[in-house]
Amino acid sequence: MGGIEFLKGHGTQNDFVLLPDPDGRLELTEARVAALCDRQRGLGADGVLRIVRSAAVGVESAGEWFMDYRNADGSIAEMCGNGVRVFVRHLVDSGLVSEREFVIGTRAGDRPVQMHADGSVTVQMGPATITGTSVTVVAGQPFSGVAVNVGNPHLVSVVEDDVDELDLRDQPDFDSDVFPEGVNLEFINLLGDNALKMRVHERGVGETRSCGTGTVAAVAAALHLAGTDTGEATVDIPGGQVIVGIRRGGSTLTGPAEIVARGELDETWWAGLGS
Ligand SMILES: N[C@H](CCC[C@H](N)C(=O)O)C(=O)O
């Protein structure tokens, strides 16, 4: 068997290691994911995207390809909005898919995608469902938030001060009765005329420069607080800007996707991490 191919890519600087594994042969253990994502002992990333045929993982999907997403700590999450865009960029650039509009399988369900001429990607992200309210505590300061499910769990807090002032180095406290599986925590400033500014502390990762599902949750929460469930907004995150659309029963995320590099993992290193 040749070396284990990988690629490195990002969507608004939420970065990923991509592992082409069409037949699902790689033993992708938590230890291997955590090592790959470690920025000193591995390649460094916020998550891993394994590219595997839906049939190879026994998933019923309209899409030939399934995105097997893992967080940097090795945990599995239902969906990754920035990751899907990078996943799509690779499938198209590599010629594995010849169309520009197709469907991707994910743990949150099938997601129709469209790659645009400029390399940006639009993802149908499914419903962004408001599920209640809760509280998070950041460096001793409590914030109330709107709970939103985008296939994965989020708590979105509107912050009066500039979100750049928040200290997100440590895991903010949250109510594990409300979020027994953990939660992605978004903090937003309302910039007016359909524009938000956001920072995020991601479940299973820590602070990231962007979180695609988080931007969808943020716009859904902002619209909900304004008394509606339909609208569009730009979201400025530290890693760039995306456009989010919310409608009843669905949402869209549009943003850039970059492939940075490709290479081979050292097989002795990989084997040494234990299968
Ligand atoms: N950390 C998230 C998954 C990755 C989400 C984020 N990277 C995105 O772009 O949506 C979770 O555990 O639900």
From TrEMBL:
The active site is at C80, C211. InterPro entries: DAP_epimerase_AS, DAP_epimerase_DapF. The keyword Cell cycle does not apply. Substrate binds at N14, N71, G81, N82, N152, N184, E202, R203, G212, T213. Its EC number is 5.1.1.7. GO terms for molecular function: diaminopimelate epimerase activity. SUPFAM superfamilies: Diaminopimelate epimerase-like (SSF54506). Homodimer. This is Diaminopimelate epimerase. It comes from Amycolatopsis umgeniensis. The gene is dapF.
